[in-house]
Design goal:
There is one protein chain. The chain has 579 residues and is α/β, with parallel strands linked by helices. Helix content is 41%, strand content 15%. It has 18 helices and 14 strands. The strands form five sheets. Strands 3, 4, 5, 6, 7 and 10 form a six-stranded mixed β-sheet that branches. A hairpin with a 3-residue loop joins strand 11 and strand 12. Helix 3 runs antiparallel to helix 4 and helix 9 crosses helix 10. The radius of gyration is 35 Å and the shape is elongated.
């Protein structure tokens, strides 16, 4: 805090102390009384001192006290007086206040009309729960003088029903079943309360059903969409991730790329920036050592990390980058160990990192979709190539997400390189930096014979680590031995004594290229048609910066498939699920 801030806070504290010194003597008089008449007499004395500027309001309160004193017998009666006082404070007469108020059960007001109490099922009403955890009911029972569970329950129920007793018309409502078909019954407390009032049978409430349905489609005109998204050359510029954003939520795409509302800058140091640091370190090592990038010494790795952390510390001086650097060093040491083994069993060499990507797709009507981006890594040999995309957490290619436009980036880069490099694509894969938690039993019991306990050894742990760090993605060629001649480093590749190194499923890149062209044209057409509805797909809102604007609070949708998946997409079919 600056000196000015300190002075401001000190002045506020002093002012608060002065006000407290004035108020405390008055408040103490309200804690000592033998009857409610004495309490209200004390309140009247305080108001008499403080209400000199509003004599009219003071007289109203005096009349209220005079009328209410004879009817006040317990705290619930006092609450009614408080409600009347609050109504006076609103400067409105009670008989002019109308309409509907939706309130939480803890905030019920005095009702002079019809009071609906909703959700009165056994599960939801009255909403009283016993204490659990460290300070559970057994613990509370040992505290001298602390109200028992029954006493607290009785007090809770009394407060729940106190204002309901004064409603001229009271309706308890609850659904007979849920959407899964499970039956609901009224709360026992509700049934007892109704029985006391002479109502022993529940009645079906006559719901009004509107049979006519109307679908509202939110969109701007095609002319407006063209003006927002196209340049003078009738080109729609963007990246593959921007198209994925459109598929996830057309409204978020409209705000960012149509209205060009700038997203707030995230100045925090988060996992995304740590992932960028890991990207940089591996990219630097590939440029220095090529295929031997993963055989780096701990000293050199530490030097690279510390160099970048020193730069980051200038931007985030409040953070302890020593701990961050140590954690990143351990993570990258483990990843380099796994990557070094993977490179030993691959004929490919990392040739390009952060390679610029440009590709054009004709949309029709003289319109061109122009995409750009950066490919994390391209591995090559004389005849083949492979795409590797680094991720901070585990990720897989899922067919439904690919062909609905939610996971386009990896396959778009792969199909582009297939044309640009004029080589056969082996596959496109994600590599996760995250060191996954391994679920491995301590051992297993051999039940045959006399029975023997076999402890899990270090080799089994290493095998689980290999599986956790396998490349996840799609395979495009049968020549998988070129990138994994052991079958341990790429998901979807298996090693059997009978067949050798084979792929479970192989995607035909020619068919995929044709489908990708269709999807790109379809997405560009949808964008330019003006669709801007706020119906996000699942997880689309997780990292969206526009949530304060749209305030979406509905059901997420499953995006429609952009193309039909043909039977000839797979070259061959294996036993494992490619997802």
């Amino acid at each position: 805090m600056s000196e000015r801030d300190v002075e401001t806070v000190a002045a506020l504290i002093q002012k608060a102390e002065e006000e407290r010194a004035k108020i405390m003597p008055m408040m103490q008089s309200l804690t000592k009384y033998q009857s409610y008449r004495e309490l209200f007499t004390n309140i009247d004395a305080i108001l008499n001192q403080q209400a000199k500027t509003d004599i009219k309001a003071y007289k109203k309160i005096q009349r209220l006290f005079a009328d209410a004193l004879e009817a006040i017998h317990d705290e619930s009666d006092c609450r009614l007086v408080l409600e009347e006082l609050e109504a006076m404070g609103s400067n409105k007469k009670a008989d002019t206040i109308g309409g509907i108020l939706v309130l939480d059960p803890d905030d019920l007001l005095f009702c002079d009309g019809t009071c609906f109490v909703l959700g009165c099922t056994q599960k939801s009403f009255p909403g009283f729960s016993s204490e659990s955890g460290i300070f559970d009911e057994n613990y509370l029972a040992l505290i001298p003088g602390y109200p028992t569970l029954d006493e607290r329950y009785g007090h809770f129920i009394k407060n729940r029903f106190v204002l309901m007793n004064y409603a001229p018309k009271l309706i308890f409502s609850y659904p007979l079943n849920d959407f899964e078909g499970k039956n609901h019954e009224a709360s026992l407390e509700i049934e007892n309360f109704a029985a006391e009032k002479g109502q022993s049978k529940s009645i079906l409430y006559p719901l009004i059903q509107k049979e006519e349905t109307r679908t509202v489609r939110y969109q701007i005109s095609e002319q407006t969409a063209h003006a927002l998204y196209l340049n003078e050359q009738r080109e729609l510029h963007g990246s593959v991730s921007s198209l994925e954003r459109y598929t996830g939520c057309p409204y978020a795409y409209f705000l960012k790329f149509g209205l060009r509302i700038q997203e707030p800058i995230d100045a925090s140091f988060n996992d995304q920036k740590i992932g960028t640091l890991s990207h940089y370190v591996l990219e630097t090592l590939v440029h220095r050592y090529g295929k031997d990038y993963a055989n780096v010494s701990e000293q050199e790795l530490r030097s690279l990390i510390n160099e970048q952390c020193a730069e980051l510390n200038k931007i985030y001086p409040q953070l302890n980058f020593n701990l961050i650097a140590e954690k990143e060093l351990l993570s990258l040491m483990n990843n380099c160990s796994q990557l070094a083994k993977m490179e030993e069993h691959s004929s490919l060499t990392p040739m390009k990192c952060e390679e610029e990507f440009y590709h054009e797709y004709p949309v029709g009507g003289g319109i061109t979709l122009k995409l750009k981006g950066y490919i994390d890594r391209i591995d090559e040999n004389d005849h083949f190539f492979r795409i590797v995309d680094y991720k901070s957490s585990k990720k897989r290619l899922v067919k439904d997400k690919v062909f609905s436009g939610q996971q386009l980036q990896l396959i778009t880069y792969a199909m582009h390189c297939r044309e640009a490099l004029n080589k056969e694509a082996l596959g496109a894969f994600y590599y996760s930096f995250k060191n996954e938690n391994l679920s491995l039993p301590y051992g297993k019991l051999k039940r045959r014979g006399a029975g023997e306990f076999i402890e899990t050894d270090a080799e089994a742990l290493l095998n689980e680590q290999k599986k956790a760090h396998r490349l996840q993605g799609w395979i495009f060629s049968e020549f998988v031995e070129e990138m994994d001649n052991e079958g341990n480093y790429t998901a979807g590749i298996k090693n059997s004594a009978k067949s050798g190194i084979t792929a479970s499923d192989v995607i035909d890149p020619r068919v995929l290229t044709h489908l990708l062209d269709q999807m790109m044209r379809s997405l560009a057409t949808q964008i330019l048609s003006g669709r801007i509805e706020c119906r996000p797909a699942e997880d689309a809102c997780l990292f969206c910066k526009y949530k304060p604007i749209c305030r979406f609070n509905g059901n997420t949708r499953k995006p429609d498939m952009l193309v039909d998946i043909p039977d000839n997409l797979m070259k061959n079919h294996g036993g494992e699920d490619d997802e």
